[in-house]
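Practice problem: predict the structure.
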Amino acid sequence: MKISQTRRLEGLVERHGNGDLSRRHFLGLTAAAAAAAGVSMPWIGRALAAATEVRFDGWGGVVQEAIDKFAFQPYTAKTGLKVVQGTFGDENEIITKIKTAKEGDYQVIHSSGVNYYIKYVQAGWNSEINEANIPNMANVLTAMIEPFRKITPKLSAIPYDYGTTGIAYNTTVISPEEAKEKGASLLADAKYAGKVGGYADMTTRVWYAALATGQDPNKITDMDAVWAKVRETRDLAKKFWSSGAELMDLLTKGEIVVTDAWSGRVAALQQQGQPIGYLDPAGSYAWMEDMLVLKGSPMAECEELINFMLDPATSIAVAEGQNYPPSLDPTKVKLTDKIAKLPAFDPTGEMKALTFADPVYWADNEDAWTKQWDRISKGA
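Answer:
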């Protein structure tokens, strides 16, 4: 009897792995079979434990609130699987934590696209997603998937949303005409000394200094000019912010009147009636975000969660809530008028109008540039 029940347990695991059984049905049958067999097998404990919750870490604020409200809460209500959430203001924070954590402690990260993806891969933290378990990937923009697949043919991350880091400005102080004329150079305009802001991030600082000096951020030829421009902005700045919430607070209170800014956070301020304009100058920094599944995660549960998040109804609701366009292909899925009006939205689905960081180029220069930015940010 014990042997037959053990074989039944093994068969149930195989059926669940093949997608023939839902998690809830699988857990009920395995629990009953294990009890009947009177056995305690390691894989049963792992399966039961893995099915109770998934760990998610994201950017907090209005972005994570939208994901929680429109994706996580409905998912938990449907499946019973809890999503335990953490937040970070800068992705390097979570990378530092992962370095000292046990494998599996961190599972799904709302990560900043291919330039960060390559870091996880180089550290050996990437998993291998079974794309057959995520049928809603069929609606995801090919132009967003391809950069990840070039790094790892078997994906560890699925694109989820995108946006730009453009120039936000107070329209009671700076006119749209002035903003358009000056573009990236607004961030080093002495006219606004003490009222300038910026993201306290090496990539953003170098990117906009390159634009302000007339250089291609993906092929910089004069780094001395870039660092000089970074120092100019630093000396004029009221504060370099470190989170979306801080960015919105500084703009709302009028403590800064111009800053590089995340498109979705600016859209949220505009919807609140704040006098904030937004400009994407030529070559402005575009980025995509993904749901990254780390090595050691409960893969079936993470895949099911991501598939739920990519469901058109869920993805559209999240996009409207967080003010960033979804990764859904607008030529395959009908998106809403609100999404079509969001900054950075690409109606073609080809993403050719957006400028993304070259992940290899930036990875090659990451260490040296980060050290220099750290020195400059401290006053060097």
